[in-house]
């Protein structure tokens, strides 16, 4: 057998290295901006088929060593269809204990804050101009988007004031211009705002049909996986026992410095359930087709 390392061997090695790298790569179920710039997105309405009244699902999350944990002190349906009833949460208890035994402004106080449950919100969105890796139009396939309290507060204010109208309307709503500056902990979304222009979610009936086909796959519960109290205690023990461990990394909850947290629990959001066939509509002029489709949501 020759020991010569040929060009074919070299190419094969690269493929193995790429497969090895991909094997350990975490795929987040959430869409997030890839870099600085303006990202027009369309926030989608609540889905009556899931009994929703809000355009988002609120979740309380803990973050330890760049890993996300669903706070046990909340009631949510998980990915297996089981209802998790709120119970005592070890991470909440640890955070409270450290707060009670530390002084404001100290390192311990900061650690307690990093362990505290953070309010996060998840919505379904359309990303304007989205493409597949090979450059094909993929705008009509919805995504899950996670955001924090400041962006949630912005939407609440817009709804309360009423000046933007029903920006969630699929027929006459508004896109949201997500303006991202910086990265990591220095990410700044403070320039983000609803578009002044009203527009349908899609004027193209084929895109609208695809959207309606994809939405039944997107129950928020598919994102939810609770770990046991014992697993949380183990994570806390590892955090405090490691001599080189620093304070945990948690997402900023301010609009100006909102960090996209890692979420190790989700899987590809399109692999959960089989979608029903696209709605069948009569052959009419395109405007009537769109109205008919929109009325089915």
Can you give a write-up of this model?
This protein is of the alpha+beta class. It has a single domain, classed as Replication Fork Single-Stranded Dna Binding Protein (Replication Fork Single-Stranded DNA Binding Protein), CATH 3.90.198.10. Helix content is 28%, strand content 19%. The chain is built from 7 helices and 10 strands. The strands form 2 sheets. Strands 1, 2, 3, 4, 7, 8, 9 and 10 form an 8-stranded mixed beta sheet that branches. The chain has a two-stranded antiparallel ribbon with strand order 5-6. β5 and β6 form a beta hairpin. α2 packs antiparallel against α3 and α5 runs parallel beside α7. About 17% of the residues have low confidence.
Calculate the mean pLDDT score and round it. Answer: 82
pLDDT < 50 stretches: 22-26, 243-288
Domain unit count: 1
Task: List the secondary-structure elements in sequence, H or E.
Answer: HEEEEEEHHEEHEEHHH
Total number of beta strands: 10
Q: Report the principal-axis shape.
A: globular
Q: So, the CATH homologous superfamily?
A: Replication Fork Single-Stranded Dna Binding Protein
Query: Quick one: biggest sheet?
Result: 8 strands, mixed
Q: Which CATH architecture is right?
A: Alpha-Beta Complex
List keywords for this structure.
single chain, alpha+beta, Replication Fork Single-Stranded DNA Binding Protein, two-stranded antiparallel ribbon, 297 residues
Quick rundown:
The chain has 297 residues and is an alpha+beta fold. The protein has helices at residues 7-23, 90-100, 107-115, 149-161, 205-214, 229-241, 286-294; strands spanning 30-31, 37-43, 57-64, 67-70, 76-77, 83-84, 118-127, 143-147, 173-180, 193-199.
């Amino acid at each position: 057998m020759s020991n010569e390392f040929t060009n074919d061997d070299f190419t094969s090695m690269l493929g193995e290295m790429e497969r090895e790298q991909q094997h350990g790569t975490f795929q987040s179920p959430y869409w997030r901006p890839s870099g600085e710039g303006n990202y027009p997105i369309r926030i989608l309405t609540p889905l009556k088929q899931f009994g929703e009244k809000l355009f988002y699902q609120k979740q309380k999350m803990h973050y330890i060593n760049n890993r996300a944990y669903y706070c046990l002190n909340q009631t949510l349906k998980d990915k297996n269809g089981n209802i998790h009833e709120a119970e005592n949460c070890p991470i909440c208890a640890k955070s409270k204990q450290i707060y009670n035994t530390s002084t404001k402004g100290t390192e311990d106080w900061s650690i307690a804050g990093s362990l505290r449950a953070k309010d996060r919100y998840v919505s379904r969105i359309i990303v304007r101009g989205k493409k597949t890796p090979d450059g094909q139009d993929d705008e009509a396939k919805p995504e899950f988007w996670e955001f924090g309290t400041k962006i949630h507060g912005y939407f609440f204010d817009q709804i309360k004031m009423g000046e933007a109208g029903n920006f969630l309307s699929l027929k006459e709503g508004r896109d949201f211009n997500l303006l991202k500056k910086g990265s990591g902990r220095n990410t700044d979304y403070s320039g983000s705002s609803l578009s002044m222009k009203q527009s349908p979610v899609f004027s193209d009936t084929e895109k609208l049909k695809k959207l309606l086909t994809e939405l039944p796959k997107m129950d928020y519960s598919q994102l939810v996986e609770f770990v046991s109290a014992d697993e949380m205690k183990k994570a806390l023990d590892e955090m405090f026992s490691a001599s080189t461990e620093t304070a945990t990394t948690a997402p900023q909850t301010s609009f100006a410095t909102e960090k996209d947290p890692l979420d190790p629990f989700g899987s590809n959001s399109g692999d959960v359930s089989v979608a029903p066939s696209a709605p069948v509509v009569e052959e009419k002029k395109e405007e009537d087709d769109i109205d008919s489709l929109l009325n089915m949501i």
